[in-house]
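Margin note from the TA: students keep mixing up input and output lines. Inputs are the sequences; the output is the structure of the whole complex. Example:
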Amino acid sequence: MLYQLALRNIWRNRRRTLLTLSAMIISSALLILALGIFSGMLRDMLASATEQYYGHLVISAKGYQDDRDMFRHFSMDKSIENVLKQDEITGYSQRLRSFGLLSHQQNSSPGEILGILPSQEQTVTGLQDSLIDGHYLTADDSNGAVLGSGLAQRLNVVPGDQLVFVTQAADGSIGNDLLLVRGIFSTGDIGYDNTLVLVPLAWLQQLLVLPGQIHEIAVKTDQPLNAAALAEQYRVNLPDALEILDWGEMLPQMREVVASYAVSRMIIVTILYLATGLGILNTFFMAVMERTRELGVLMALGMRPGQIRTMIMLETAIMGSLGLLCGAVVGIALSLYMALVGVDLSGTLTPITYAGGTILPRLHAVIEPANILIPSVCLLIVSLLAGFLPANRAAKMQPVVAIRDAI
Amino acid sequence: MALIELKSVTKIYPLGSQEVVAVDDFSLSIEAGEFSVLAGPSGSGKTTLLNLIGCLDQPTRGEIWLDGREVGHAKQKTLFELRLRKIGFIFQAYNLIPVLTAAENAEFTLMLQRVGKKQRRERVLRLFSLLGLDGLEHRKPSDLSGGQQQRVAIARAMASEPAVILADEPTASLDSHASEELLALMQRLNQEQGATFIFSSHDPLVISHAKRVVRLQDGHLESDQ
C-alpha cells in the first residue's frame, strides 16, 4: 500500500518529477562520464609511464636502478624464467643499457641506447605504435636503430641515414660502431623523444663486450594497479643479487598521482552531489509542504508517523533509484562513446608530461565499475538524505495543526 | 455507560502571549446510535469539541471517555490506534486522497487495518451501492462532483465500522439539493446500520435533521435538546 501510494505521489506532479529526475540523471551521467575521462587520463599517464619505457615491473641487479652502473649486469637463469612464466605476466623484455654520444655528420647529441629483442620489447612497450617515420626493428636486424623524434631532429637524420655511437665498453675500451636509422618515434614525452634509441640487443652486447648479459628485464602484467603486490610475491623466487621493483617504486610521483585519484574522485562526487542534493531537498520539501493538509488527513485517518515517514522516504528512494538507473545507462552510453571514439585535441593541445607520465591531448574514457558504482550509490544516499528531512518533518506534524482548515 | 463522555473539559490555546479558551468546563454524554449536531456560531467551540472527541487534540483539563476508555490524556500511539479503529471522519472539504480512486479512498482505513483485499472490496462495494456510487469505483476524486466526493468520504468513514462518525460542516461545500440528499442518506445509515453520527454545523438544514441538537456559545453549553 505504502509503495503504491509513494509511486502515485511521485507522478502527481509530472513536470516537477521529470525536472527533478532530469537533474539526477544529468548529474550522475555527467559524473560517470567525467570520472571515466579522469580514469582514462590516468590510464594514459600510467600507460605512457610504464608501457613506453619501464613496464609494470623491472627485474635488475640490486641498486642498478639507482645509479645505472654498467657493471651491474646479470644473465637469464632458470629461477628468473620461472618467475616470468606466471599467469599475470603478459610480456617481458630483456634489455641492456648504455649511455654515450651519437653523431651524424656535423651533429652530435648524448643519448640512451637500449639494446632489446624487438619481439620481446613489443610485448612490454608500445613504441612501435608511436612510429612517425620508417619502421620498427626486426628480429634479423643487426645494426638498426629506432630513435625519438627530438633526437632525430637534433641529429638531422631520417630513416636510411647512418649514426655513429661512441661509449665506454665493459673492458675499458672505447666502443664505437655504426647504426642505421630504421625508424623515428614520437611519444609526446620529451624525455624519451629527445634521448632514447632502441638497438638490437646482440649489437649492444658486442659493443659493450658484455656477451649474454643484460641490465634489466621489463615486465608487463595484466594487473598494473596491483603491480606492487605482484612484485612482493615474485621477489622471494628471484636470486639474492637481483631485485624486482614495481612502477610505483620507479615512479614515486606517479604512485602519488594514482593514490590521490581516489581522493580527488570523492571530492568531485561530494561537490557535485552537494549541489544536486540541495536541489532534490528543495523539491522534496516543496512536495511535502504542498501536501501538509493531505498528510494531516492521512494521520487523522489512522496512518502512523512511521508510515508517513516511510511513504515519503519510499518516494525519494524510488526517485533516487530511477535517477540512478537512468543516470547509469546514460553515463555508460556516454562513456562508451568516449571510450570507443573519444575526442582528439591534438590540433589545439600538446602532450603534457607530469609525474613521469604523459597526459595525451585527447578526451578518452575508460569504463571502471567504481566510476559507475560510486556516483550511483552516492545519488541514492543523497536522495534518501534529502528525503529524510521533509519525511521527518511530516511525521512530526500534529494532524490537528496540519488540517486545521479541514476539520 | 455512554459511548462518549466529556467531563468538565476545558481547552485553552496559546495565541501569542495570550490564551484563548475554546471550550470551557464542558460536559456532555453521547449514547451509541445517536444522530447529534453540535450547533453554534463560528468560534463557539464546535470544531474544537469535534477534534477532542476525534482524538485529534487533547484537553487542557477534564476527561474524555470513548467506548469505556479515557482518551483525553492517552499517548500519541494510542490516539492513532483509536482514530484508526474507533473513529470515522467526514471533512468539510472531503479531503479524499487525489492519487487514489474512489474505491481505494473508501478502502484506505481498511488497508491500514490490514483487512484482506477481497473483504475490503466487498465491504466498500456494498457501501457504494448503499450510497448510490455504483460504477464510480475507479474514478479519481477529481472526476467526481462535490456530492459524489462527499459520499465517497462517508463510505471511507463508515468502511471500518467505527464506533462514531464525526462530520465537520459536511454540507458546507454542497448545494441545498445535494445537502438534503446527503443528510437523508446519513440518516438512513444511522437508522439501518446503527451508526453514531456527530456533526458540527450551523446549517439549519443539518440541525433540522438531527435527533439531538447541542448548542454552544463561547465554549459553553448553551442548550441540549
